[in-house]
Amino acid sequence: MPAVGPRQPCPCGSGRRYKACHGERTRPAPVLRPFQGRQDEPDLVALREFVPSATAPLTLSAEHLNAHPDHADRRIILGTLLPQAAPAVVRDDGEILLAMQTLVSGLDPAADLAGALLAALDAKPGTVVEGPPASALAAVEQLPGGLAELPRLADLLDPAPLEVTVHSGFTWWIPSSEGAEPNAEVAASLDRANATVVPTTRLESVPAAYWCNPGDRLHLRWALPLGSGGDGDGGGESSRALSSSRDLTEEALLDALARLSAAGQLSVGEGSRFVGSFRADGLVVPVWDLAPGADAESCEKPAAALWVALRETVADARALTPQERRVRAGVVGRTLTLR
Questions:
Q1: What is the rounded average pLDDT of the residues 285-297?
Q2: What is the pLDDT of residues 149-158, one digit of tens each?
Q3: 116 close to 87: Cβ distance less than 8 angstroms
Q4: How far is it, in rounded angstroms, from Cα 268 to Cα 176?
Q5: What is the Cβ-side half-sphere exposure of residue 76, based on CA atoms within 13 angstroms?
Q6: How far apart are CA 68 and CA 62, in angstroms?
Q7: Nearest to 207 by CA among 191, 230, 187, 223
Q8: What is the model's pTM?
Q9: Is the C-alpha dihedral spanning 43, 48, 53, 56 positive or negative?
């Protein structure tokens, strides 16, 4: 087509302006729920967004191992953050550290993780995996099929949920098998990283709830599951425990939170106060201020009781009362979107 201005008639003869016809630039949209379909979606969101230091061992899927039997003996650890925010590191013994938190993210974090993991599996020992994310806009625009062509984390991993371990620092960066003390430069870097860690504990009685102590107030942050819809794997056991429907939506979850708040039951312990929520990677994460001195153990029973009440409330299909609607408006008004 000849070069024309954006406001001129499109040379195709449609009668529309060029910018609204063949001159329109369409860009692929970012994936709103990158970990949808994984049973551990809430924990993956938590590790990516607000847990400072945690790890979980990864197991490759049977399909991947059938295609790549040489990867069968590789040990892979998923971590929150690596030195210099690297996407992945291959240790001298071949062990792979894969990071949830990096400096730059593409359109689909699940595709970015898969790309970093595949690069690490093919890299030599002692390699730091660097480079732009696999789902960077420039890269995706070059693919005929767009994002659909990229492998995603769920394609590479066994579907079993992760076993998350929260750490008080980043000593897991250093291989325990080395035995020797790190040199002065590594030790200084580790000390700086450890100084930034907010004390955090994962509750045992409910899924994906994390107590934390940022210094001024104690908080509980709880990544709540949603259904995935359709005939897929669903949101996993935690989603099915929350609702018998695979189509549990954010709207239904907000309704349930409003009902419990109006009834004075939106509590995770004596003296706790619901202060709002944030939306991260497609999930709603309610946040509570806790009473001074409240530790993670003191939240276990109240959180378990709230989990039961939330499941029961989600199943209530009646319309909200005027009071509940007012409370719901306050809940929605205190919801921020991180990504």
A1: 96
A2: 999 999 999 9
A3: yes
A4: 37
A5: 25
A6: 10
A7: 223
A8: 0.86
A9: positive
